[in-house]
Amino acid sequence: MISVEGLTAGPLFGLPLPEVWYGLMFTLLATFLFLDGFDFGAGAIYGLLDTDRQREAVLAAVGPFWDGNEVWLVVFGGALFAAFPAAYAGLFSRHYLLMFAILGALIIRGLAPEMYEQRHDNLWQRAWSVAFVAGSVLAPFFLGVFAGNWLVGNEGSISLIGLVVGVTLTLLTVVSGAAFLRLKAQHDLPPVVSTYGQLAVVGYLLAVVATLAVLAMRLPEGITTLLDPLIIVLVVASIVLAAGYILALRREQNLIALGIAGVMTYGLITVVARIMYPAIDPATGATIRETIVSTLPLNLMTIGAGLLLPLVVVYFAVLYTAFSGPITPEEAY
């Protein structure tokens, strides 16, 4: 039985809770980047479509999901703040301009579809369409810039590694978005959407190579860090998965293609987490065990997360079940 004395005496059930929360934090980030990632990718592809009907199909496809998917970003930020408050404070104070840029892009992305429907005026709808595309592209790009700076401990907002990771993450969202749109709106969108996904996955692999090259120059131990067996396996797996993604799209196995995109997203975040570990804030050299909160609040948070996260997962299972299957012609945002 759990008691107050037991909660203050040591980690819950003897678990390595700093590592558990480190892994949980990056799992939450990967979940956001996959679920909201296909929304971002759909928004990028929206800008490449020709007709109002096609653009309306994109909005109808992402409409039930995008605002719910953003919950995972809030949960990620909450986990970082709750478990590693010193790292949270350092990261967000050094990169507050990037935080505002990310929030601004997310706001524009969310506001644009709502405003688009308010007036049936060509100039008005064209302006908000541009805003929707801009928000959908800039949000993952700025998130990638933030992740790149965090990974190498860069204290400025703009850096080469940040720009490269930003491009990498943006391309990965297009990979997810193409598979999602083919799954949800295959009969309302042209086959070229599949081509966009295939081009994006090739671009993603090239961007990964560029990212690894920059990391080899920026990391303290250089290429030695990147020769970790887990990182090598994940990079090789990305190449195999990319080939499988292209094959799945060509065979119109769109759900498989979307699943592959998800595995690639989790794989990318695993590489980031592995490179950074055991540090949580490379800029200061602080490790997860140095910055984790004290035993009692950590144990209480672990119990709370164990109770609440399954409920969130159930909610999303219900959401995606309720809106499963392709959209119908009469559906609108």
UniProtKB/TrEMBL annotation:
PANTHER family: CYTOCHROME BD2 SUBUNIT II. It is a multi-pass membrane protein. InterPro entries: Cyt-d_oxidase_su2. The keyword Hydrolase does not apply. Its main location: membrane. One of its GO terms (biological process) is aerobic electron transport chain. Keywords: Cell membrane, Membrane, Transmembrane, Transmembrane helix. It is found in: Cell membrane. GO terms for molecular function: electron transfer activity; oxidoreductase activity, acting on diphenols and related substances as donors, oxygen as acceptor. This is Cytochrome D ubiquinol oxidase subunit II. The keyword Transmembrane helix applies. GO terms for cellular component: cytochrome complex; plasma membrane. The chain crosses the membrane at residues 20-49, 70-90, 96-116, 128-152, 158-181, 193-217, 229-248, 255-280, 300-323.
